[in-house]
Amino acid sequence: MAIGVGGCCAVLLAAALLFSSPATTYAYDSLDPNGNITIKWDVMQWTPDGYAAVVTLSNYQQFRHIQPPGWQLGWTWQQKEVIWSMYGAQAIEQGDCSMSKEGSNVPHSCKKHPTVVDLLPGAPIDLQIANCCKAGSLSAFSQDPANSAASFQIIVGHSGNSNETVRVPKNFSLMAPGPGYTCSRAMIVKPSRFLSPDGRRATQVLMTWNVICTYSQFLAQKVPSCCVSLSSFDNDKTVDCPTCSCGCRNEKSTTGKCVKKNAPDLQSIIHGPGRW
C-alpha cells in the first residue's frame, strides 16, 4: 500500500517528536522559570577501588533560600558502591555493612540509596571542608552569592576507578527541606577547571557530572490549602473537597472536610437526602 507525501511527512514528524521528547519531566516555577539548584560532582582523584570527589550544591534560584533543617540529597548507586568516608556532610544512615571484607575499616555508609545532609556549624575541624557546615542553609545566588553554595567531599569504594569504568549515580532526589524539587539525570560534562591563587596556572579535575534540580509549587503542595465546593441547585450531590484541604493538613482531629455536614449557613439553601 502506497503512502502519500502528506502521510509520509506525518509519519516522519511523529517519529521525530517521539525520539526527541525528553526522558524526564522537570518541575517548573512560573515565578522563577530559570531558577535551579545545580549539583556538581568533581572527581578529584582515582583510588584503588573507586574515587574521591567534591560535590557542590549551588542555589541559582532568585528568591528561594534554603533554611534549616536544610537540604537533603539522595541518589541510587548503580553498582555495589559504598561510601568509605565523608567530609563536610554525612549520610543519615550507615546501613548494613556486615558484608564488608575490609577488616576493621568499616564504610561510612553501605546504603544502596544513601541520603546525605550538611554538617552543623561547629563540626570538628578534621571533618570540615570549604563551604560546609551551615546546617543545610543555602542563600539565593542573586541575593547572597557568597553563601549560595555548599560542598562536601566523598570517598567512594567498590566502584569503577577510571573514566571508562565509573558508573554515575542515578535517581537523584533533593529535599530543601521539604518536597517540591525534581532532579534530572546525571549528565557527564566537560571537566571543571580551577585557577591557582596567582592566576598563572589552571588545573582540571578527572571527571565531572551535573544534576539540575528545579522547584514546583504543585509538587510541594499537591493538596490545595483551600477549597471551594461548587454544584448546581438541581444536582443531587455536592462536590467534595480533597482530603485535608482548607488548612486542616496538620490537624489530626479533623476529618479533612471543608464544611461540616450540618453547617447552618448552608442548610438554608442546600437540603434534602443525598446532598451530603
From TrEMBL:
InterPro entries, sorted: COB_C, COBRA_pln
GO cellular component, one term: membrane
Gene Ontology biological process terms from the UniProt entry: cellulose microfibril organization
Domain COBRA C-terminal: 225-255
Keyword Transmembrane: no
Domain of life: Eukaryota
Alphabetized UniProt keyword annotations: Glycoprotein, Signal
Annotated signal sequence range: 1-27
Family listed: Belongs to the COBRA family.
Protein name per its UniProtKB record: Os10g0497700 protein
Lineage: Eukaryota, Viridiplantae, Streptophyta, Embryophyta, Tracheophyta
